[in-house]
Amino acid sequence: MAGKLLVYVEVLEGTPAEHSLELLGKAKELATKAGLGVGAILVGHGVRRVAEEVVYRGAEEVHVVDDPRLATYSVLPYTDAAAEVIRNVGPEIVLFSATTTGRELAPRIAARLRTGITADCTDVDIGDWVDPATGRRYERVLYQLRPTFGGEIMAAIVTPWHRPQMATVRPGLFPVPPRDPSRTGRVVEWSAEIEESSLEAAEVIEVRRETRKVDLRSARIIVAGGRGCGAKGFELVRELAKALNAEVGASRAAVDAGLIPYDHQVGLTGQTVKPEVYIAVGISGAIQHVVGMKDSKVVIAVNRDPEAPIFRVADYGIVGDLFAVLPKLIERLGKRR
Amino acid sequence: MPMNVVVLVKPVVDPKAAVRFRPDGTIDRSAAKLVVNPYDKHAVEAAVQLKERFGGRVVSVSMAPPHAADAIREVLAMGVDEAVLLSDPRLAGSDTLATSYALSAVIRRLEQRLGGVDLVLCGIETSDSNTGHIGPEVGEWLGIPSVSYVDRILEVGDGRVSVKRLIEGGYAVVRVKLPAVLSIAGTSYQPRIPSLRDVLAARRKQVAVWSADDAGIDPSLVGIAGSPTRVVRMWRVEIKRKGVVISEADPDRAVDRLLEELRKDGVPLGV
Ligand SMILES: Cc1cc2nc3c(=O)[nH]c(=O)nc-3n(C[C@H](O)[C@H](O)[C@H](O)COP(=O)(O)OP(=O)(O)OC[C@H]3O[C@@H](n4cnc5c(N)ncnc54)[C@H](O)[C@@H]3O)c2cc1C
Ligand SMILES: Nc1ncnc2c1ncn2[C@@H]1O[C@H](COP(=O)(O)O)[C@@H](O)[C@H]1O
Question: Is residue B246 part of a domain?
Fold first, then answer.
């Protein structure tokens, strides 16, 4: 075996997070192509229990740091624990999901290991790379593809001579690998090497995390409302959704304002959706929202601000007051039934 | 309890201007006007609010070419007391590991000069690189805690700060020991618009230009040599959107036109 590719697997409510399993599936594909072994890192408390589950999803070995002091996520103790495992295992590549956890934790680990890291990749691949300056060939180089300049430009990035090569990868891009309980793998338990100062540095006082019950990913049409809708506007959003037999989506600002439950949130910290038609109403089009809906086939936007960035990612836009536009739309689309 | 706050401010190519390439495929930043990274203004706003509440000094730190000084005046007008611009040809080509090292070296010097730095604030990401790595990496170089995606600073006292951090499906409240690095999300701190008086007052404030040596930077850890990552290719993303924007004052006509366009293009809304 030429080396290892490890995936940091987040555990949410006692199960491996779906986005981590997706990444494991992708990692396995790359590892097979490059002749690498594929493994996982689990950090937390009570996480030993899910190691087998991670094996069933394709990991050949699972490195576990299970310690009561790691019961809630906090960046410093988790950095200590994960960095120590990575140092000992010496993988070629370590991948994280580009979640709020991954994007906080992974750069901290990378800096500790004095290696490079690429953020928020939309694809990864493995291949050879020849340094144009020296003509030297490097093998098993991770090609990290990611948008920059707010999505206007794509970049391919490599980390040729540092190990491990590290990246965070956007959730929601790859299929979850099938579960195969006949798979076997090695589980390696590590004791947590945590500095006392890391534990003292931060105290997590409260975590409020809703899990979602509504799956918007298979929706054909989504009508999404933003903060601009207010409670009254959201009624119109729901009505329009009903007229179109569509699901209701929302921006984070709408969710945070209590207009609709988190279940419906689209974006970086919500769901990634790809409907045939996405209708954004009273949504400004912040990048964190757009990453969750930009692969929709057709995007329609209603916003009274002609400068709203949502119009830059829309096929059709109406510049106007949603309270005037939506009733007309509902009337016209409802009528044909 | 007066607080000394360092706020990291990156001058970037105006995100409203189209990105230009050089013939060799690299990005041409030379001609473009530099502005303050929009996200960093939220961090500046948070820093200035802390100063207004607790007293102390706010110093901005930027790593950019010398002509970035003009852009930095904007944050001086917002209430930053002084600005440091780290500018040195040896820093060119630095990736996030190298940049965070260089910024942390400046912060260490400021620590000595100010008799301590209580907080380092930064934006959640830059408009040109969108990584959000600098905050956690600076924290690591300085050996202090970091919190990313901070929506709001809730409380300061007893050498600690409580913050609300955004996560999937909600938030977490974290109490961290000072000094710490916080990446401020653009959600709660709406940047103030400086008045004419503020703008004039900012002219008397100083943008100190530091070389790598002024900051005590080890040249082998910055620039291309100190950067583990290499950008091997960049290309423009084709946004395949039709971009039909209807600005009719009359909502009836606007909706009519929309439905007509949808029908023409066969968009499956059953219209
Ligand atoms: C770590 C992090 C994660 C995040 N995750 C997400 C995420 O998953 N999803 C997400 O959506 N955001 C997310 N955000 C927040 C994001 O940055 C924006 O704050 C949010 O998307 C804004 O929501 P909005 O467009 O509804 O509100 P606003 O930006 O307030 O926009 C409201 C819009 O409504 C328009 N409007 C107002 N009244 C009317 C009217 N009567 N008629 C027509 N138009 C009107 C306005 O012109 C404006 O464009 C995240 C932010 C951070 C920092
Ligand atoms: N060259 C720089 N000079 C000063 N601050 C920077 C620089 N690069 C990044 N930052 C800070 O780090 C944050 C995150 O940047 P990034 O990791 O590049 O997305 C930004 O919002 C800035 O506050």
Answer: yes
